[in-house]
């Protein structure tokens, strides 16, 4: 084990977080060490810290699914990355790759090389939502895998596709990817503050999800009930609405966990499910419900080998994929920055932006 250590932000018990010293390992085969510049805080981080979710009672648990930074060391068998490369990455398993630490050991397949002039701050918003959107659309919903640039329209180019909650950071990537892949009838629901931006990303119709006649407007835009729906909120209330506009043979992909009630971020007493309980399922049996677990995307060998190492770098190099808006926490100590970011996320004070923490001390 390495005698070197570095700082990391971790949950050390239910309800308790702290900056701690952790060992700095060397990258193994197929891995790279990244000096972390920025990381994002997402709702799942609050579920770990506040409720001990997915900890199995074992602490400390490091936090941060996304990171951006510079490659400092490369393990054997790694192709396409070298020391000095700017990258963004997604932590699929274990604490070694989590973003809220000064050094992270990443599987090279979960890293994307960035253009030399790309903002590391902006890059920290990309991995989890980009992967979620791509995996959901082209694996879970089984839309045709695109190759960019798209020269031939896909089979469902003129089929209406609903992105419910498109103002969410994952929804913004879904709208972009659908438009880039040649889908011309993307219907998005979002708060009015996001409408013009979503149209600029490629949505054909944007509907206020708080409007009393939202369901009627969705059906009017689609011309019929919908065959494909992506629920970016994953709450009981959103699924109840979708139930009224999806066709009897449609497919609904819902981002997990499903939250009880209406909130995007589950509160202390709210239930969360990784599979929708039978007594909460309002859909007919003929509708295919798919729960999206982004961490499983590497089970698709094509996505494992191409999505981060090849597809995302090309889209970034060509400037045709837009990062999320950043809400940056860069003041005070690392403890202060991380804690303030967690507070904003757990209190639901985020809207169409990614909460990003500056990790690097220099």
Describe the structure.
Residues 15-357 form the Enoyl reductase (ER) domain. It holds the Pfam family ADH_zinc_N. GO terms for molecular function: oxidoreductase activity, acting on NAD(P)H. This is Chaperonin 10-like protein. InterPro entries: ADH-like_C (IPR013149), ADH-like_N (IPR013154), ER (IPR020843), GroES-like_sf (IPR011032), NAD(P)-bd_dom_sf (IPR036291), Trans-enoyl_RdTase-like (IPR047122). The protein is of the alpha/beta class and 362 residues long. The chain has 2 domains: 5-126 and 324-358, Quinone Oxidoreductase, Chain A, domain 1 (Alpha-Beta Complex); 129-296, NAD(P)-binding Rossmann-like Domain (Rossmann fold, 3-Layer(aba) Sandwich). It has 9 helices and 18 strands. It has helices at residues 43-51, 120-123, 127-140, 169-180, 195-201, 214-222, 236-243, 301-317, 334-346; strands spanning 5-13, 16-23, 31-41, 61-62, 66-74, 86-90, 103-107, 111-113, 161-164, 186-190, 205-208, 226-231, 246-255, 258-259, 272-273, 288-292, 325-329, 353-358. The strands form 4 sheets. Strands 3, 5, 6, 7, 8, 17 and 18 form a 7-stranded mixed β-sheet that branches. A 6-stranded parallel β-sheet has the order 11-10-9-12-13-16, with helices on both faces. A 3-stranded antiparallel β-sheet has the order 2-1-4. β10, α5 and β11 form a beta-alpha-beta unit. The longest helix is centred in the C-terminal third of the chain and has 17 residues, at 301-317. The protein is globular, with a radius of gyration of 20 Å. The mean pLDDT is 94.
């Amino acid at each position: 084990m390495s005698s070197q250590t570095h700082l990391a932000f971790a949950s050390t018990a239910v309800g308790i977080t702290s900056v701690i010293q952790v060992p700095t390992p060397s990258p193994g085969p197929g891995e790279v060490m990244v000096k972390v510049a920025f990381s994002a805080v997402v709702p799942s981080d609050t579920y770990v810290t506040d409720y001990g979710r997915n900890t199995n009672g074992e602490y400390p648990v490091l936090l941060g699914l996304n990171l951006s930074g510079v490659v400092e060391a490369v393990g054997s068998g790694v192709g396409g990355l070298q020391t000095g490369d700017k990258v963004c990455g997604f932590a699929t398993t274990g604490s070694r790759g989590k973003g809220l630490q000064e050094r992270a050991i990443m599987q090279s397949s979960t890293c994307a090389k960035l253009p030399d002039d790309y903002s590391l701050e902006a890059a920290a918003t990309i991995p989890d939502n980009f992967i979620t959107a791509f995996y959901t659309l082209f694996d879970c919903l089984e839309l045709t895998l695109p190759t960019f640039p798209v020269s031939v329209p896909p089979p469902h180019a003129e089929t209406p596709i609903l992105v419910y909650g498109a103002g969410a950071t994952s929804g913004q990537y879904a709208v972009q990817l659908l438009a880039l892949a040649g889908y011309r009838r993307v219907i998005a629901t979002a708060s009015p503050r996001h409408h013009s931006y979503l149209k600029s990303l490629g949505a054909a119709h944007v509907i206020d999800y708080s409007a009393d006649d939202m369901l009627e407007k969705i059906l009017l835009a689609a011309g019929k009930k919908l065959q494909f729906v992506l629920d970016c909120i994953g709450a009981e209330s959103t699924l109840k609405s979708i139930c009224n506009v999806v066709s009897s043979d449609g497919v609904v992909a819902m981002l997990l966990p499903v939250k009880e009630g209406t909130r995007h971020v589950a509160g202390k007493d709210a239930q969360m499910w990784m599979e929708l309980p039978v007594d909460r399922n309002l859909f007919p049996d003929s509708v295919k419900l798919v729960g999206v677990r982004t961490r499983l995307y590497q089970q698709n060998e094509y996505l494992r080998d191409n999505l981060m190492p090849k597809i995302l770098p090309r889209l970034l190099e060509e400037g045709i994929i837009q990062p999320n808006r950043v809400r940056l926490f860069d003041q005070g100590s690392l403890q202060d920055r991380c804690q303030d970011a967690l507070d904003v996320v757990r209190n639901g004070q985020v809207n169409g932006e990614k909460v990003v923490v500056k990790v690097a001390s220099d």
